[in-house]
Amino acid sequence: MASVIEEDINLDEVVENGEDEVEAVEEGETKDPAKKKKKKKKKKKTENDAPIENNSEVTDAAEKVVSLSVDETPGEGDEKKKKKKKNKNKSGKGPSKEQTNPPTIPIAELYSNGNYPEGQIMDHGPAEGIDERTAKERFSSEEKRALDRLHQDIYQEIRHAAEAHRQTRKYIRDWIKPGMTMIQICEELESTARRLIGEDGLKAGLAFPTGCSRNHCAAHYTPNTGDKTVLEYDDVVKIDFGTHINGRIIDCAFTLTFNPRYDPLVKGVQEATEAGIKASGVDVRLCDVGAAVQEVMESHEVELDGQIYQVKPIRNLNGHSIGPYRIHAGKTVPIVKGGETTRMEENEFYAIETFGSTGRGQVHDDMDCSHYMKNFDQQFVPLRLQSSKQLFNLINKNFGTLAFCKRWLERAGASRYVLALKDLCDKGVVDAYPPLCDIKGCYTAQFEHTILLRPTCKEVISRGDDY
Question: Basic residues: which segments have biased composition (predicted)?
């Protein structure tokens, strides 16, 4: 997108010229030759006169020259200054407004020109058979740059969603405190994200329910109505939520702790995620990303209650590719050695997420289910129950193929839906995603970023100042 070139008057240059004229006046000269001659004549007439003791007339003249040079006419300078200030964001380099605290202004209003901040730009990780030089040449390739320009509308949509995610989590990370209920935390986060993303049906909103899994529970837990679980000081909680614009999804997560004894666990998982991001890129094999993640994560250990635990990657949890309105688009990114030899490709979106555990390093279904999602590939299935038909219509209207939870069904107006939801799951129209847990008593951590493999570079879209 071309920048708007500003053509405002350069005030510094004008003032500089004005200062030159001031100096000229003080020395009894001006830059105008005609005026200079007049000045000389005047000087001859007053050669024998007494010297002027008071220089105030010259000073006033000098001030007048500066004033007229800058302002031209009274009041005109103020208008130009205001105009310059008003137009300073036409280039699209920053927000046109300042966000409130807590955040309430939609991101679309903050960036009214539609030019949203880029994520972190990195070169594509050198793949097997492709040297680092070839990967870096993509930056300067005119062909790749042209391909980049073809997809700017998509890039702006995903950056819009990313900025909403960044500002939401920045506020929530400082706001969450021990003693709050998990429902209170989720509702505050979701209401903030909805405001910032400018929720608009399936065009803009939340991409999936807020995960707030604690301790041995690694993923897919969000409280159902009536859940009275309270966040404790010694909890290790994974905050995993998503935003989207026109189905372009940001999937991004972080681990929050209050007791510093868990810092080595959190650090190990975060560094493993960074290793996965660094290893990713066009033509990179998915299994090579997993190997890089495992090597870094297993190099960390944590001491809890006098016992040393190696940080283990949870081998049956993976990162994944992301498609429009589809959180899991088909490719999986392992976090251990082995796995798919499939290669990453241009213009693919990936969630690079890693999970570390002090337990077995393997999860299983446990606890009450809260997460559900319509089966993306399911063909038409006849529904006999009227309640199932009504619930299915509500799901299609409000969520489409995006994930949802029981709280969101109730928010959308569903009531007495339990049997209908079970019927949809039994028929394979909707899939249930129960909480995933390691052994009780262990602790798990998670970090995740969404990356975009642009033709020219790798963009970590969800990158923020926090992680």
Answer: 34-45, 81-91
